[in-house]
Amino acid sequence: MAPNFIFPPKLTALEDDHHDDGSLSAHNPAEILSLRPSQLEEFVKGVSFDLSDKEIFCIEEQDLFDRVFSLVKGFSSLSPTCKFNLVESLRSNLSVLLPNVDSLSRASQAENDDEGSVLDRITSHRNAFKIYTFYLIHVVLIEESNISSNNISKVAASSRKKLPINSWHWELQRGRILNLIANSLEINLSLLFGSSDPDENYLSFIAKNAFSLFENGTLLKDSETKEALCRIIGTCATKYHYTAQSCASILHLIHKYDFVITHLADAVAGAEKKYADGSLATSLIREIGRSNPKDYVKDTVGAENIGRFLVELADRLPKLISTNIGLLVPHFAGESYKIRNALVGVLGKLVGKALKDVEGEVSSKSNRLRTKQAMLEILVERCRDVSAYTRSRVLQVWAELCEEHSISIGLWNEVATVAAGRLEDKSAIVRKSALNLLIMMLQHNPFGPQLRIASFEATLEQYKKKLKELEPNAASESILDGISSDNDTCNGDGEVDNVDAEVVSKEHPESLTDSCLPQVEGGINQEDSSVPDLGNLEQTRTLVASLEAGLRFSQCVSATMPTLVQLMASASATDVENTILLLMRCKQFQIDGSEACLRKMLPLVFSQDKSIYEAVENAFINIYVVRNNPVETAKNLLYLAIDSNIGDLAALEFIVGALVSKGDITASMISSLWDFFCFNISGTSAEQSRGALSVLCMAAKSSTGILGSHLQDIIDIGFGRWAKVEPLLARTACLALQRLSEEDKKKLLLSNGSRVFGLLESLVTGFWLPENGWYAAADKAIGAAYAIHPRPETLAADLVKKSLRSVFNCSVGDELQNDIDNGNTNVLTTVQVTNLSRYLFVASQVAMNQLVYIESCVRKIQKEKSKKEKLDAEGQNVQNNSTAAVDASKDNSINAELGIAASEDAMLDTLSERTEKEIVSGGSSEKNLIGHCASFLSKLCRNFGLMQKYPELQASAMLALCCFMIIDAEFCDANLQLLFTVVESSPSETVRSNCTIALGDLAVRFPNLLEPWTENVYARLRDASVSVRKNAVLVLSHLILNDMMKVKGYIYEMAMRLEDEDERISNLAKLFFHELSKKGNNPIYNLLPDMLGKLSNVNLKRDSFCNIMQFLIGSIKKDKQMESLVEKLCIRFGGVTDGRQWEYISYCLSQLAFTEKSVKKLIESFKTYEHVLSEDSVMDNFRNIINKTKKFAKPELKSCIEEFEEKLVKFHIEKKEQERTAQNAETHKQKLSSLENFVAAKNGEDSSDSEIVEDASDAEVTDPLMEGVAQSAHDVSKSNVEFDEQSLSESSSGLTESETCENEVQSPTIRSRGRRKLKYGH
Asked: Bias category Basic residues: which stretches (predicted)?
């Protein structure tokens, strides 16, 4: 009988250890490397022949064993054919051996006589089994090692069929070998090894090599190989009780490699499913539960991998994990957020799978429900986790549960409330998860497809009445009695039945999103409609509870609308995109307020972030563009245009133009808009007609030919009787005329030119439009005249003259001006204020449009000139050899030398300046039409008495004055002081607001003239009016961010608006500083010290100051700038003596993001601030700095920080002692003074009454506490005792705290603070 085979630690050990024991080993291995290829091939064929020809036990023979050993040892050097032959021989023999083991088992039961022969056969089978297994696994290890080292590419699985049967394909062979090994573990090995568990040596060899193969990620991509390895691991651990070692190896692999997680989870789940034994999974959970939570803080990769493994395991074995979840719950208290994330995911899997079905015995059912409730409570609690990642993961789990319909109606509103609250989380990932959760809750809500609050309230009221009828004896009883606290019914066994969800979802069993009760919707709007009779009191109660839950859910989502509007202004693109998606879902379910919020989405089309623009565009198309219904699309667009403000209209125009260009707004939709405008659709109102024309004007920006097809309709309807019904219709018609293409303008002039100009003139000079619509219409009418008239200045002059005649006769114009000069207000009794306001408006708008017209003419001339030069250059290149070309080139060169081209440009500029100047002043002794108006207007605006009497006239007059100032520099300079006087002192908020906006235009037009008035411009930020402050912030933001105004020392005024009482202004100021921080090298860094000084000296609350500085410092990101700020702020300590400023400077220091260098700089600058450490508030700020820096400090720096802390504390105590001593000395000095005065009073008792009165008038008030020692004090004064240092200190120490307070002894710091309060109190 052959010696017993023992698995060696490695293959080569078979050569080394054959003399040590009686085990089978390699005695005479062949040197196959020395063989020629042909000899090697013959050698392999011989081995294969022997293995196939002889019995399967022949592998025990020493000669064959040695030869196979030699081939396996040099397997990497074999040719593919030799490899295939050897592997096929070994694999086929082992596959034949496995059935023989089963037959051997039957033979052993039958042949009870010959036990010796049976034992011999068992030994031979065991030896052969182990040898074949040993060699085949080493073939796999050697080949995999060879592939990894040489980076041999694998052949795709799809090419397997194309290969010949006897060709070498390693992936196929590997899968077969490992599957054979896995099958070998499933036979009756107890007979071979003599016990229920195989030899430890054998199991160790199999498991160790299986786990080593698991470390190869490429190998696991082959499904056959992966499945075989999973079977091997599961069988060893479960069937043969190799659990402890397998657990250790599995956990090691999980900690080390992330790609093994899902495969190992498959192996563990497969073992439990196959053998109905969860010991391996339980052992793993127990080991993970035993681990120290602190270990996962440093091992972040291991924590993440363990977490993923637990989630995968919970997904595959939910019921087993649910019974062992108590082992993992303590890890919720650990510091590793990744483990907490995983546990949250595990709970979600368990709630969704293990505890979903509640069938079975009553006791187990009740236990599962209690367990589920406990898990849900943990999930709700974890929504407030300290880690943003965990909070986000919890919300994601809730979304998954919602999608799986695993949230009861009783818990629905609690989850919705949590999600709504997390919308304001400081972390963007949490906000994203909260938005997605709300989207999912709306999509899978159990209350119906329409969630209007009014509908729920009406239906609920009806069913409440029905419920009262069903229970007349319980009027005072609560409706919710008899149902559980979470609105679910509860039976006697503690089981919660979601009856209402079942009733609600009868029509749509696949989704709980569609119906609340089929009969309910039809009866919502009919008060006296009959309520469907459910017939059962309990069902009616359940339905009422469901309706109440639905109402609360609708109210909860509706209450989030203000938050969603804020999120649309978020700097995070994901916030904006997900908010838009949520609002789309809200509109789909008709949530109250969603329509208004969606309109606030429109300005986001101007976002520079492409993803945000695409999100807005997609949402717009999905909501407002109905592809199969052009009329509905037209109606949606025109209503948008009607209800939008100016900002929304600009955004709507942009997006409509883009959609027209892309073809998303089709010709049929444009045709439907024309039908609405022309009243071709029944029921169309004048307002709808105006909205349709407005949308058509927007579309005309991208497709200029849209308006040309209905020119006559625009004239007839826009200026006809409908314009009197809808005043803005005329304005929109004028805008349409401006948007006409050049061809359409020519066509209009030829066909209806005179009529159109007559209509425009009547609109401007007539009185058929109401006052509130005339100004907007006249503005566009004047613009339309300049856009389409060939000589617009003639028509404009007629407009001004006719408007003037409507005010008064021209012959008395000089008399009117004289009366204005003399301050005679009676003149306006003969002049209507309304007509005068209109005249001033017309004159100013004509002047502005004339300026724009001149600039457009100059641009046209320049464009024509450049075009001509370009054509000349091209002609010169074409005719290079012609005589004309030579002459032309000579002329051009002569012109260039003489500077004729430059002189032409200069002449054009001169003409442009002259024409612009002539608009207002003319530059001559005789003023032109507008010039007369400007002179009159200037004097009118200076008559403040008249202006205050007629505020509407002042508004028009100041607007006109600002227009003239923008046009002419001389006129502007002459009236600047007037403008600033009005903007500061006018009682009208509208006038001040308009003038503030005009200041911005003037600063752009004439920056040098406005530069000396910069302080006055910034002063508008302190105006009492919210409108004026808002416009001032907008104007200054525009000027500064576009480099049209230098940032000067008054920028602190803008910083104060960060804490403005109006939230809109505060947000605009924040946006300004956010954009300013992006410019250049961040100007805020240079401005911060100066702003700190200015803000410290103004009457600003401490909390407001702290919030302002915190925001400004937060916008500085560079480490170098932070380090420099530390030095600058430390230096400022020496320049101020006010304790409040010391506190403010130290607070700013505490807000900086410290680095190692900045900490060292702070320590080095100790001398600059040691004198301020006596202040407790200053010391608190330095303590905050120390606590902050300790968190990131390395050991060396940490020791320096600790020394610095000790030094600070020491100086703080010393300074406090010095201050206390100084206070005590001051108190004692005051006491001595009072004693001396008292003695002097005693000495003068015998003097005359007049002297007593005189002394009393000069004396100081004596402390009442000292009256009891008057005589002793008198003796002391007589003996002239001198106080030494010891007695002084004793006297000082004898003072109590109450005495100090009563005598009001204060430190210099406190006194200076009091003085400052007094100063600003006045």
From this structure: 1312-1322
